Amino acid sequence: MDMQLQGKRVLVTGGSKGIGLACAEAFAAEGCDVVLASRDAAALATAADKVRAQRQVRVETFAADLSQDAERERLHATHGSIDILVNNAGAIPAGRLADISMARWKQAWDLKVFGYIHMCQLFLPTMEARRAGAIVNIIGMAGRAPRAGYIAGGAGNAALIAFTSAIGAAAQASGVKVVGINPAVTKTDRMLTQARTHAKNQLGDEERWAETLTGLPFGRPIEASEIADLAVFLASPRGHYVNGTVVDVDGGGMFRA
Description:
This protein is of the alpha/beta class. The chain has one domain (about 10-250): Rossmann fold. The protein is built from 8 helices and 7 strands. The protein has helices at about 20-30, 40-55, 70-80, 100-110, 115-130, 150-170, 190-205, 225-235; strands at about 10-15, 35-40, 60-65, 85, 135-140, 175-185, 245-250. A 7-stranded parallel β-sheet has the order 3-2-1-4-5-6-7, with helices on both faces. Helix 6 (about 150-170) links the parallel strand 5 and strand 6 (about 175-185). It is globular and about 50 Å long.
């Protein structure tokens, strides 16, 4: 299916690995030029080479700490003219309320929660002015099904779900759409990190991380490419009427007894 995205310019934060890199590859497959942003310049270079090797599109990189207001503003000043923004950068730690210091809590929210909000604040006005564009926020199922063991992430994701729906409802008047995706457990490096934390907290041994990943729907975690394919559809003219919605991707796990 042609997603009608040929020649569009896409900015992906957290684009050097995991879901972000998968999104870059999926948009590139549709003929989009991509800008990858994350902290690690070396990882970005490797990711960009991977995308270039697969598709004949323009791939640019931007190394920045997107937990910082000034760095987000610098990114916007350099790459402000984009058609699609994929907010994906985030690393909220697992843990219960007593496990996470306020400094760590604020650091995590500065990157994901306030980072997403600020990126939308920066890039949305230009999209609205030209009456075209799309923003896809990669959020997370913890916002729908919060757990005490991931309290900072659940609370942050819930805030971003509400934020996404609210600005999507308003932006459509200017021809712009804003949507979100809530992935459940997805096969990434971050999945392993969180599984190790859960194993340490629940079982007293982080090496028993695999035991925390049992009972998943369909017997497996989500592939990053599955989230990326959905992001492409939601950002495309094919998915034009899907707006202000945050799509849950958890295999129905939230509703299982």
